[in-house]
């Protein structure tokens, strides 16, 4: 049966953000020693560095709400899939959601996929109480 990149991406995104929101250390099996995550101009390489970064974010609670998931093969000869996600997230007691964008490259391995690399935005701009004149920059240090 042929692999459908959209189906793989949807299943991956559901699992990734559910795990991220409930137990960030649980993301470790999705990465390998050669995996990388780039954010704010810094690259984190390897399972320990990536999970360490994700586990030490400056917030306790987070809820991701993906709204778009786009996927396509980046190298169909080996089944590598490029996944782009946009959506909103809530952190801690914040009532105004923040917009986010995240990109992953998924590589097949032993009947499943691992995250070879990923990139996150440098920051998110949000208005306090819906007033765009008081924009503040929230840096999410993924």
From TrEMBL:
Localization, UniProt: Cytoplasm; Nucleus
Key word Nucleotide-binding present: no
Domain NTF2: 8-122
Matching Gene3D superfamilies: 3.10.450.50
Assigned keywords, A-Z: Cytoplasm, Nucleus, Protein transport, Transport
Any GO BP annotation: mRNA transport
Transmembrane residue ranges: none
GO cellular component: cytoplasm; nuclear envelope
Superkingdom to which the source organism belongs: Eukaryota
Pfam families in UniProt: NTF2 (PF02136)
Keyword Nucleus: yes
Role, per record: Has a role in nuclear-cytoplasmic transport of proteins and mRNAs.
UniProt name for this protein: NTF2-related export protein
């Amino acid at each position: 049966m042929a692999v459908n990149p959209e189906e793989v991406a949807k299943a991956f995104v559901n699992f990734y953000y559910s795990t991220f929101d409930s137990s960030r250390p649980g993301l470790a099996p999705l990465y390998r020693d050669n995996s990388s995550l780039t954010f704010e101009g810094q690259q984190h390489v390897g399972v320990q560095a990536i999970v360490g970064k994700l586990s030490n974010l400056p917030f306790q609670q987070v809820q991701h709400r993906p709204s778009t998931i786009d996927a396509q093969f980046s190298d169909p000869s080996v089944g590598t899939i490029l996944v782009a996600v946009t959506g909103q997230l809530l952190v801690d007691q914040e009532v105004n959601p923040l917009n986010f964008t995240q990109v992953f490259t998924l590589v097949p391995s032993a009947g499943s996929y691992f995250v070879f690399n990923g990139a996150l935005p440098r920051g998110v701009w949000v208005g306090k109480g819906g007033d765009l004149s008081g924009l503040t920059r929230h840096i999410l240090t993924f």
